[in-house]
Amino acid sequence: MVSCDISVNNVLAVVNSRLVGHYVRLDDRVRTLGLCIKAWAAARRINDRSRGTISSFALVLMLIHFLQRRDPPVLPSLQDIAFSQNEKPKFVNGVDCRFCTDAGKIREELAYLRGARSPNEEDVATLLLEFFRYFGKDYRSGIIRIRDTRSMLPPGDETKCFLVVDNPFEVGKDVANIDASQQSALRKDRSILLSRVAPRFWFAKSLQIQVCAVHVMGQMPLKLRRSSGERGATSIRQVSRFQCRAD
What we know:
Blueprint: H1 11-26, H2 28-43, H3 56-68, H4 78-84, E1 91-92, E2 95-96, H5 103-114, H6 124-138, E3 143-144, H7 158-161, E4 164-165, H8 180-197, H9 207-219, H10 222-225, H11 229-240
Parallel strand pairs: 3-4
Antiparallel strand pairs: 1-2
Helix pairs in contact: 1-2, 2-3, 2-9, 6-8
């Protein structure tokens, strides 16, 4: 069985997919991280838009947003480049959907953003852990966007601005649009990330183990995830027996 998201009669959704596809092709780590995060979210049962939780599109935008803000950055903003280069607007249903696809300009922008620093060479394991840390601890409130690489809005009322993921083209449209009844559950899940799940990635040495850890740790009962010491080490050994590939 193949799991996928289907959009009908929505041309802007096609453009959104093209934008995401260009980001994925910029760096091999993006695809692998996206698979890991989607597997984790599905295991935690927070990846079902029909039930008021986070859509796959919102998760991908959260990942791109995070990678744009690494130090040095992994990704630039393709839309920001297009606007700064005064590229010709490309309107779809009245919405300007321009973004840069010129490999040379993208390399120049990344070089400009990192300055004198070397390119970001963090491995997938480190980036995955830092993604959890970013949204599990550092993020409090504000709009999550990929249209530019500026900071989020200043901290405010979380009940009004909790996990607001801005549509990259239709500015002001929240693609997360999380149901109010699910917000408390998601906040609780954020606290679990750092205190229970994320630290165990330090003990997983291979990508194979880490991809499996996202899935298995998400499905484990909370009582087992609270274990530490020998039982914690045992759970990692159990994860290592799974055969899981990122390709």
